[in-house]
Design brief:
The protein is an all-alpha fold. Helix content is 66%, strand content 0%. The protein is built from six helices and no strands. Helix 4 crosses helix 5. The N terminus is likely disordered.
Length: 137
């Protein structure tokens, strides 16, 4: 596992967090030592969440790419759902004022995104991935 961490570049993240947890770089007067998963459970949780989030982000990015290469154009309702989930996943809750009521497309997009208010960005990513997977099949 250590070789995988070094080769993937994640060792830098783990090493930096270890230095913070242990008190700094020994070269700079800190007392950083080797990391011990048993004595640093909070960091173990952080690392596990980091890897899971990274995996979800990669899946989301792949789903975004897949959504642009669907064999058939989805219905307008489905496109609106994809749009709102994408916005919630990337930006969080809707912000700004609602568009002019005569701009029907912008108003529909705003209302669809607004309906997802309170949905976490990770949950929106999962829903987006699920929807794209349904559309691919």
């Amino acid at each position: 596992m250590f070789n995988w961490l070094v080769n993937s570049g994640l060792f830098v993240v783990l090493e930096a967090a270890t230095l913070v947890l242990k008190g700094g770089d020994p070269k700079l007067g800190g007392d950083a030592g080797y990391f011990n998963w048993k004595t640093q459970p909070k960091f173990a949780t952080f690392a596990a969440n980091f890897f899971l989030d990274m995996d979800l982000q990669q899946q989301f990015e792949a789903a975004v790419a897949d959504s642009k290469a669907l064999s058939e154009r989805p219905s307008n309702e489905t496109l609106l759902q994809l749009y709102s989930l994408y916005k919630q996943a990337t930006e969080g809750d809707v912000n700004g004022e609602a568009p002019n009521m005569f701009d029907f497309v912008a108003k529909a997009k705003y209302e669809a995104w607004s309906a997802l208010k309170g949905t976490s960005q990770d949950a929106a990513k999962e829903q987006y991935i699920s929807l794209v997977n349904k559309l691919k099949n």
